[in-house]
């Protein structure tokens, strides 16, 4: 189990990384929506709240993956879970938003035929949460230590490599 201070630090770093990755992506692909045409500067300003939402969405994916993959050797599995849930939730959000008329694609948005959702938002929420998670959780070559709790409640020291 990760110490609470380390978990909060990692979550904070994840929010920052996710925001910085999603903001330019949102601004660039916003041109593929009827409602978001305008200059790149306008799109950067317009997409600021969406990038914040994407950062929170990434945090939620990270938390779900932490609950499903808690083994120390599960880092690759965790990235896969983040990507898979990102893909599924992006398809659901896009399909619901399109059905409710919240936004409309223009000719710049390729549509993934099988799921009938825009390629750019689906790729965004599949790849960027995984990249943000990898950036925040990658090992830097330094040894780290953390305390984990065994099934009997006894704390033990772990050393990373």
Main features:
two-stranded antiparallel ribbon, disordered C terminus, mainly alpha, single chain, 4 strands, 61% helix, 161 residues
Structural description of this entry:
The chain is mainly alpha-helical. Helices cover 61% and strands 9% of the residues. Strands 1-2 form a two-stranded antiparallel ribbon. Strands 3-4 form a two-stranded antiparallel sheet. Helix 1 (4-29) packs antiparallel against helix 5 (119-137), helix 3 packs across helix 4 and helix 3 crosses helix 5 (119-137). The radius of gyration is 18 Å and the shape is globular. The relative contact order is 0.15.
Q: What's the main sheet like?
A: 2 strands, antiparallel
Q: Tell me the distance between the termini.
A: 17 Å
Strand ordering within the main sheet:
1-2
Question: Radius of gyration, Cα only, in angstroms?
Answer: 18 Å
Approximate helicity band: 55-70%
- Mean of all residue-level pLDDT scores: 85
Write down how many β-strands occur, each being a DSSP E stretch of 2 or more residues.
Answer: 4
Envelope shape: globular
Low-pLDDT parts are 141-161
- Based on secondary structure, the structural category is mainly alpha
Number of helices: 5
Order of helices and strands: HHHHEEHEE
Percent of residues in beta strands: 5-15%
């Amino acid at each position: 189990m990760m110490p609470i201070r380390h978990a909060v630090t990692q979550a904070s770093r994840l929010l920052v990384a996710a925001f910085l990755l999603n903001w330019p992506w949102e601004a660039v692909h916003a041109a593929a929506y009827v409602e978001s045409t305008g200059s790149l500067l306008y799109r950067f300003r317009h997409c600021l709240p969406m990038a914040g939402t994407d950062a929170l969405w990434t945090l939620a994916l990270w938390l779900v993956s932490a609950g499903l993959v808690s083994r120390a050797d599960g880092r690759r599995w965790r990235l896969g879970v983040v990507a898979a849930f990102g893909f599924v939730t992006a398809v659901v959000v896009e399909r619901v938003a399109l059905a409710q008329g919240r936004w409309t694609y223009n000719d710049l948005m390729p549509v993934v035929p099988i799921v009938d959702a825009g390629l750019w938002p689906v790729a965004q929420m599949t790849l960027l949460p995984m990249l943000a998670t990898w950036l925040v959780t990658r090992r830097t070559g330094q040894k780290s230590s953390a305390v984990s709790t065994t099934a009997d409640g006894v704390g033990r020291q772990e050393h990373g490599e």
